[in-house]
Design brief:
Length: 318
C-alpha cells in the first residue's frame, strides 16, 4: 500500500504537471517534500535544478536542457508574477518562424517589470514594461501579444531575422498587414526604432518559409526584387502545375526556396522535384532557379543568378 511519501511525491508531480514540469522549492516543501529528500532527488538526477530554487521534474539527460516552455516557466517562477516572455522568446512560444534554429542553451528574453529576484544565467532581462493589454497567457506562461512581440523583436534582431518573423506572423494570421503601420509607429523613440523603421514595409505574408523571406530580401538588395510570390503556373489545359515561391513573370523566371525537408526526405524530394519539373514544362517556358540555405552564404551570387536567368529567358523568347 502506498505510504505518505508516495502521496507527497504525487502531489508535487501533479503541481508540476500544470507548470510545464517545474516546481519551486517552496512549492515542494509545501507538498511535504523535505529539504533532504529534495537534495537526494537532485543528486540522483530524478529532479533537475534549472534555476536557483526551481526544479524540473522530468530530467532529459545530464547534457540536455528542458523544453523551452519549462525553462521560461522556471524563470517566471523565480522572478515572480511580473516576469513576461518577450521578443525572440515570445516569438518561439507563439510558434513564429524566422529565428535561427533554437538550441537548449539559447538565451531567454524576459521583461521583469517591478519583479525581484535573480534571473540566473542565460537570461536577458529587459527593462521594457508592456502594457496590460500587451500581455497574454498561453498555456500558463505570461508572454507578450503577437503584435508587441514583433515590436520588441525587431529592436533586438538583424533585418533578415526581423522581416522573416514578421512574414511568419502575417502568414500564420497572428497579426494582419493593416496592423503593421501602427506597430511601427508605436516603436517611435525606442532605441533602434529609426534603424528598423524601413523593415516593416518589406514584410509579406505570402512567404511560406524563412528561407523564402531571406532570399526575397537578398534579391531586393541586389536590385532584382521578385515581382510576385507564390506565382501560379498553369499547364496547356489550364490546370495548375504548381506555385513558384518567387517569380519574375514578365522576365520568364521563377525561383524555389528548397529548405531542409526536400533534401533529407526522399519522398518529399521526389514530390518537390516532380512539381518543379511540371512548372518548367508549361507553355510559359519558364527558367527555374533553386536556392538553398547554403546559397545565403553568397548573397551576391543569388542576385547574379536571377539577373543571368532573366537575360537568358529574354533571349530565348525573342
Amino acid at each position: 500500500m502506498p505510504g505518505p511519501e508516495h502521496f507527497r511525491l504525487s502531489a508535487v508531480h501533479g503541481l508540476a504537471a500544470g507548470q510545464h514540469g517545474v516546481v519551486t522549492r517552496a512549492q515542494a516543501l509545501h507538498c511535504g517534500i523535505t529539504p533532504g529528500r529534495i537534495a537526494r532527488l537532485v543528486r540522483r538526477r530524478r529532479w533537475q535544478r534549472v534555476r536557483t530554487g526551481v526544479y524540473f521534474l522530468h530530467p532529459v539527460g545530464a547534457d540536455a536542457e528542458p523544453p523551452l516552455e519549462a525553462r521560461v516557466m522556471a524563470v517566471q517562477l523565480a522572478l515572480g508574477s511580473h516576469a513576461v516572455a518577450v521578443g525572440p522568446t515570445a516569438a518561439r512560444l507563439w510558434g513564429l518562424h524566422g529565428l535561427s534554429p533554437g538550441t537548449g542553451g539559447e538565451r531567454l528574453h524576459i521583461a521583469a517589470g517591478g519583479g525581484s529576484g535573480a534571473a540566473g544565467p542565460m537570461v536577458r532581462r529587459h527593462a521594457w514594461r508592456p502594457a496590460p493589454g500587451e500581455i497574454a497567457l498561453y498555456r500558463g506562461i505570461r508572454l507578450t501579444t503577437p503584435g508587441r512581440t514583433l515590436r520588441d523583436l525587431v529592436v533586438v534582431s538583424d533585418r533578415h531575422t526581423a522581416v522573416s518573423v514578421i512574414d511568419s506572423a502575417l502568414h500564420r494570421g497572428a497579426v494582419t498587414a493593416d496592423l503593421l503601420p501602427a506597430l511601427r509607429a508605436a516603436n517611435a523613440g525606442r532605441p533602434g526604432a529609426v534603424r528598423t523603421r524601413p523593415w516593416w514595409s518589406l514584410a509579406d505574408g505570402r512567404a511560406q518559409s524563412s528561407l523564402e523571406s531571406r532570399i526575397r530580401l537578398v534579391c531586393h538588395d541586389g536590385g532584382v526584387p521578385p515581382e510576385t510570390l507564390q506565382y501560379p503556373v498553369y499547364r496547356a489545359d489550364g490546370t495548375l502545375a504548381g506555385r513558384a515561391d518567387l517569380a519574375w513573370p514578365s522576365r520568364g523566371v521563377i525561383a524555389e526556396a528548397d529548405g531542409r525537408a526536400p533534401h533529407t526526405l526522399p519522398e518529399a524530394l521526389f514530390t518537390d522535384r516532380r512539381r518543379q519539373n511540371r512548372m518548367v514544362s508549361t507553355p510559359e517556358r519558364l527558367v527555374l532557379l533553386r536556392f538553398t540555405w547554403r546559397d545565403l552564404h553568397r548573397p551576391h551570387d543569388i542576385a547574379a543568378a536571377v539577373r543571368a536567368a532573366c537575360r537568358i529567358s529574354e533571349e530565348a523568347h525573342r
